[in-house]
Amino acid sequence: MGKSICPRFEKAIGLLSQRWTGLIVYQLLPGPQRFCSIESSIGISGRVLSERLKDLESEGIVNREVFPETPVRIEYSLTDKGRSLEPLMREMEKWSQNWLEA
Amino acid sequence: MGKSICPRFEKAIGLLSQRWTGLIVYQLLPGPQRFCSIESSIGISGRVLSERLKDLESEGIVNREVFPETPVRIEYSLTDKGRSLEPLMREMEKWSQNWLEA
DNA sequence: TATACTAACTTACGTAAAGTAACCAACTAA
DNA sequence: TTAGTTGGTTACTTTACGTAAGTTAGTATA
Fold first, then answer.
1. What is the fold, at CATH topology level, of the domain defined by B33-102?
2. B15: Cβ–Cβ under 8 A, 6 or more apart, which residues?
3. Does A30 touch chain B (CB under 8 A)?
4. Pairing state of beta strands A73-78 and A33-34?
Protein backbone atom coordinates (compact mmCIF):
# COMPACT_ATOMS: atom_id res chain seq x y z
CA MET A 1 0.00 0.00 0.00
CA GLY A 2 2.68 2.49 1.06
CA LYS A 3 4.21 2.84 -2.40
CA SER A 4 5.97 6.07 -1.56
CA ILE A 5 8.81 5.69 -4.03
CA CYS A 6 9.28 8.42 -6.63
CA PRO A 7 8.11 7.10 -9.99
CA ARG A 8 11.14 8.58 -11.73
CA PHE A 9 13.48 6.76 -9.39
CA GLU A 10 11.49 3.61 -9.90
CA LYS A 11 11.81 3.96 -13.65
CA ALA A 12 15.56 4.55 -13.39
CA ILE A 13 16.09 1.52 -11.24
CA GLY A 14 13.81 -0.47 -13.50
CA LEU A 15 16.02 0.39 -16.45
CA LEU A 16 19.30 -0.36 -14.73
CA SER A 17 18.12 -3.49 -13.01
CA GLN A 18 17.37 -5.07 -16.32
CA ARG A 19 20.03 -7.61 -17.05
CA TRP A 20 22.90 -6.29 -19.23
CA THR A 21 21.67 -2.70 -19.44
CA GLY A 22 24.29 -1.34 -17.06
CA LEU A 23 27.13 -3.23 -18.72
CA ILE A 24 26.10 -2.01 -22.17
CA VAL A 25 26.11 1.62 -21.02
CA TYR A 26 29.42 1.07 -19.23
CA GLN A 27 30.92 -0.44 -22.34
CA LEU A 28 29.85 2.54 -24.43
CA LEU A 29 31.30 5.14 -22.05
CA PRO A 30 34.73 5.26 -23.77
CA GLY A 31 33.15 5.73 -27.19
CA PRO A 32 31.05 4.23 -30.00
CA GLN A 33 31.10 0.50 -30.51
CA ARG A 34 29.61 -1.86 -32.98
CA PHE A 35 27.23 -4.69 -32.33
CA CYS A 36 29.69 -7.56 -32.50
CA SER A 37 32.17 -5.71 -30.33
CA ILE A 38 29.68 -5.18 -27.51
CA GLU A 39 28.50 -8.74 -27.90
CA SER A 40 31.93 -10.27 -27.41
CA SER A 41 33.18 -7.85 -24.79
CA ILE A 42 30.41 -8.42 -22.26
CA GLY A 43 29.34 -11.93 -23.26
CA ILE A 44 25.70 -11.15 -23.98
CA SER A 45 23.76 -13.15 -26.57
CA GLY A 46 22.92 -11.47 -29.86
CA ARG A 47 19.24 -11.98 -29.29
CA VAL A 48 19.16 -10.06 -26.03
CA LEU A 49 21.69 -7.43 -27.14
CA SER A 50 19.46 -6.58 -30.08
CA GLU A 51 16.51 -6.26 -27.71
CA ARG A 52 18.40 -4.09 -25.20
CA LEU A 53 19.83 -1.75 -27.81
CA LYS A 54 16.33 -1.13 -29.17
CA ASP A 55 15.07 -0.40 -25.64
CA LEU A 56 17.98 1.93 -24.91
CA GLU A 57 17.50 3.69 -28.23
CA SER A 58 13.81 4.21 -27.53
CA GLU A 59 14.71 5.59 -24.09
CA GLY A 60 17.04 8.09 -25.72
CA ILE A 61 20.10 6.67 -24.02
CA VAL A 62 21.77 5.10 -27.03
CA ASN A 63 22.18 6.32 -30.60
CA ARG A 64 22.39 4.05 -33.64
CA GLU A 65 24.31 5.11 -36.73
CA VAL A 66 24.53 3.15 -40.00
CA PHE A 67 27.62 3.29 -42.22
CA PRO A 68 26.79 1.73 -45.61
CA GLU A 69 30.17 0.12 -46.12
CA THR A 70 30.83 -3.48 -47.00
CA PRO A 71 30.01 -5.28 -44.89
CA VAL A 72 27.73 -2.76 -43.24
CA ARG A 73 29.02 -1.08 -40.12
CA ILE A 74 26.64 0.03 -37.42
CA GLU A 75 27.86 2.06 -34.49
CA TYR A 76 26.15 2.43 -31.17
CA SER A 77 27.01 5.39 -28.98
CA LEU A 78 25.70 7.15 -25.90
CA THR A 79 23.51 10.23 -26.18
CA ASP A 80 23.86 13.05 -23.65
CA LYS A 81 21.32 11.27 -21.53
CA GLY A 82 23.40 8.11 -21.74
CA ARG A 83 26.67 9.85 -20.93
CA SER A 84 25.03 11.44 -17.92
CA LEU A 85 25.00 7.99 -16.34
CA GLU A 86 28.78 8.12 -16.01
CA PRO A 87 28.85 9.42 -12.38
CA LEU A 88 26.58 6.56 -11.37
CA MET A 89 28.88 4.09 -13.10
CA ARG A 90 31.90 5.60 -11.36
CA GLU A 91 30.19 5.17 -8.01
CA MET A 92 29.56 1.57 -8.88
CA GLU A 93 33.23 1.14 -9.76
CA LYS A 94 34.28 2.73 -6.47
CA TRP A 95 31.93 0.57 -4.46
CA SER A 96 33.09 -2.60 -6.14
CA GLN A 97 36.73 -1.69 -5.51
CA ASN A 98 36.12 -0.89 -1.86
CA TRP A 99 33.74 -3.67 -0.91
CA LEU A 100 34.19 -6.64 -3.16
CA GLU A 101 37.07 -9.06 -3.28
CA ALA A 102 39.01 -10.04 -6.34
CA MET B 1 36.99 -12.63 -26.42
CA GLY B 2 37.90 -9.16 -25.21
CA LYS B 3 36.35 -9.56 -21.74
CA SER B 4 38.34 -6.71 -20.25
CA ILE B 5 35.84 -5.77 -17.56
CA CYS B 6 37.01 -5.82 -13.95
CA PRO B 7 35.50 -8.87 -12.24
CA ARG B 8 34.64 -6.84 -9.17
CA PHE B 9 32.70 -4.36 -11.25
CA GLU B 10 31.00 -7.21 -13.03
CA LYS B 11 29.97 -8.70 -9.71
CA ALA B 12 28.64 -5.35 -8.48
CA ILE B 13 26.60 -4.81 -11.59
CA GLY B 14 25.45 -8.41 -11.42
CA LEU B 15 24.10 -7.79 -7.93
CA LEU B 16 22.39 -4.53 -8.70
CA SER B 17 21.00 -5.61 -12.02
CA GLN B 18 19.07 -8.37 -10.36
CA ARG B 19 15.46 -7.35 -10.24
CA TRP B 20 14.39 -5.74 -6.92
CA THR B 21 17.85 -5.73 -5.32
CA GLY B 22 18.34 -1.99 -5.78
CA LEU B 23 14.88 -1.12 -4.52
CA ILE B 24 15.32 -3.28 -1.42
CA VAL B 25 18.59 -1.57 -0.54
CA TYR B 26 17.06 1.84 -1.25
CA GLN B 27 14.11 1.04 0.96
CA LEU B 28 16.41 0.06 3.82
CA LEU B 29 18.53 3.22 3.64
CA PRO B 30 16.37 5.18 6.13
CA GLY B 31 16.48 2.36 8.66
CA PRO B 32 15.45 -1.20 9.53
CA GLN B 33 12.25 -2.59 8.09
CA ARG B 34 10.32 -5.76 8.48
CA PHE B 35 9.44 -8.27 5.80
CA CYS B 36 5.83 -7.25 5.24
CA SER B 37 6.76 -3.58 5.16
CA ILE B 38 9.33 -4.03 2.38
CA GLU B 39 6.91 -6.29 0.55
CA SER B 40 4.11 -3.75 0.43
CA SER B 41 6.26 -0.68 -0.10
CA ILE B 42 7.97 -1.86 -3.27
CA GLY B 43 5.36 -4.31 -4.54
CA ILE B 44 7.59 -7.36 -4.67
CA SER B 45 6.13 -10.82 -4.19
CA GLY B 46 6.85 -12.61 -0.92
CA ARG B 47 8.44 -15.48 -2.76
CA VAL B 48 11.07 -13.35 -4.45
CA LEU B 49 11.59 -11.02 -1.47
CA SER B 50 12.45 -14.02 0.66
CA GLU B 51 14.94 -15.14 -1.98
CA ARG B 52 16.54 -11.70 -2.37
CA LEU B 53 16.88 -11.09 1.36
CA LYS B 54 18.73 -14.39 1.70
CA ASP B 55 21.03 -13.43 -1.16
CA LEU B 56 21.70 -9.99 0.30
CA GLU B 57 22.34 -11.47 3.71
CA SER B 58 24.82 -13.94 2.29
CA GLU B 59 26.55 -11.08 0.45
CA GLY B 60 26.91 -9.22 3.75
CA ILE B 61 24.74 -6.34 2.59
CA VAL B 62 21.70 -6.96 4.76
CA ASN B 63 21.36 -8.04 8.38
CA ARG B 64 18.48 -10.09 9.77
CA GLU B 65 17.39 -9.75 13.38
CA VAL B 66 14.68 -11.77 15.09
CA PHE B 67 12.54 -10.33 17.90
CA PRO B 68 10.59 -13.15 19.57
CA GLU B 69 7.47 -11.12 20.20
CA THR B 70 3.94 -12.05 19.26
CA PRO B 71 3.55 -12.24 16.42
CA VAL B 72 7.25 -12.60 15.70
CA ARG B 73 9.00 -9.49 14.42
CA ILE B 74 11.94 -9.76 12.09
CA GLU B 75 13.87 -6.70 11.11
CA TYR B 76 16.06 -6.33 8.08
CA SER B 77 18.70 -3.62 8.07
CA LEU B 78 21.75 -2.60 6.06
CA THR B 79 25.24 -3.56 7.15
CA ASP B 80 28.14 -1.12 6.64
CA LYS B 81 28.62 -2.68 3.23
CA GLY B 82 24.96 -2.08 2.47
CA ARG B 83 24.97 1.51 3.69
CA SER B 84 28.03 2.17 1.54
CA LEU B 85 25.74 1.86 -1.47
CA GLU B 86 24.07 5.14 -0.53
CA PRO B 87 26.20 7.41 -2.79
CA LEU B 88 25.34 5.19 -5.71
CA MET B 89 21.65 5.40 -4.85
CA ARG B 90 21.88 9.18 -4.58
CA GLU B 91 23.44 9.34 -8.04
CA MET B 92 20.56 7.26 -9.32
CA GLU B 93 18.10 9.66 -7.68
CA LYS B 94 19.87 12.64 -9.24
CA TRP B 95 19.93 11.10 -12.67
CA SER B 96 16.25 10.18 -12.53
CA GLN B 97 15.36 13.72 -11.46
CA ASN B 98 17.44 15.30 -14.21
CA TRP B 99 16.68 13.01 -17.10
CA LEU B 100 13.35 11.30 -16.63
CA GLU B 101 9.91 12.79 -16.88
CA ALA B 102 7.20 12.49 -14.29
C1' DT C 1 27.80 -18.94 -62.35
C1' DA C 2 28.03 -20.78 -57.93
C1' DT C 3 29.98 -20.76 -53.47
C1' DA C 4 31.57 -18.40 -49.65
C1' DC C 5 32.26 -14.56 -46.32
C1' DT C 6 30.99 -10.73 -43.31
C1' DA C 7 27.96 -7.91 -40.02
C1' DA C 8 23.82 -7.39 -38.00
C1' DC C 9 20.08 -9.20 -37.01
C1' DT C 10 15.73 -12.55 -36.48
C1' DT C 11 13.37 -16.99 -35.45
C1' DA C 12 12.46 -21.19 -33.09
C1' DC C 13 12.94 -23.59 -29.18
C1' DG C 14 14.35 -25.01 -24.40
C1' DT C 15 15.64 -23.54 -19.69
C1' DA C 16 15.72 -20.33 -15.84
C1' DA C 17 13.72 -16.63 -13.23
C1' DA C 18 9.75 -14.27 -11.56
C1' DG C 19 4.60 -13.67 -10.52
C1' DT C 20 0.33 -15.69 -8.23
C1' DA C 21 -2.09 -17.90 -4.99
C1' DA C 22 -2.66 -21.23 -1.64
C1' DC C 23 -0.83 -23.22 2.36
C1' DC C 24 1.92 -23.71 6.92
C1' DA C 25 3.93 -22.93 11.73
C1' DA C 26 3.85 -20.58 15.96
C1' DC C 27 1.63 -17.89 18.97
C1' DT C 28 -2.37 -15.21 20.92
C1' DA C 29 -6.91 -13.25 21.40
C1' DA C 30 -11.89 -13.68 21.29
C1' DT D 1 -12.63 -23.57 19.00
C1' DT D 2 -12.15 -20.34 15.60
C1' DA D 3 -9.77 -16.60 13.81
C1' DG D 4 -5.87 -13.41 13.16
C1' DT D 5 -0.93 -12.20 12.90
C1' DT D 6 4.01 -12.49 10.74
C1' DG D 7 7.19 -14.61 8.00
C1' DG D 8 7.70 -17.51 5.36
C1' DT D 9 7.28 -22.07 1.68
C1' DT D 10 5.13 -24.87 -2.18
C1' DA D 11 2.99 -25.68 -6.54
C1' DC D 12 1.95 -23.84 -10.75
C1' DT D 13 1.89 -20.35 -14.64
C1' DT D 14 3.98 -16.73 -17.22
C1' DT D 15 7.81 -14.10 -18.70
C1' DA D 16 12.74 -13.46 -19.58
C1' DC D 17 16.89 -15.27 -21.17
C1' DG D 18 20.34 -18.50 -23.58
C1' DT D 19 21.55 -21.35 -27.71
C1' DA D 20 21.83 -22.28 -32.19
C1' DA D 21 20.31 -21.98 -36.74
C1' DG D 22 18.61 -19.09 -40.45
C1' DT D 23 18.18 -14.45 -43.08
C1' DT D 24 19.57 -10.32 -45.77
C1' DA D 25 22.63 -7.44 -48.35
C1' DG D 26 26.72 -6.68 -50.40
C1' DT D 27 30.98 -8.18 -52.11
C1' DA D 28 34.89 -11.46 -53.18
C1' DT D 29 36.62 -15.86 -54.81
C1' DA D 30 36.81 -20.26 -57.75
1. Arc Repressor Mutant, subunit A (1.10.10)
2. B21, B59, B61
3. no
4. antiparallel
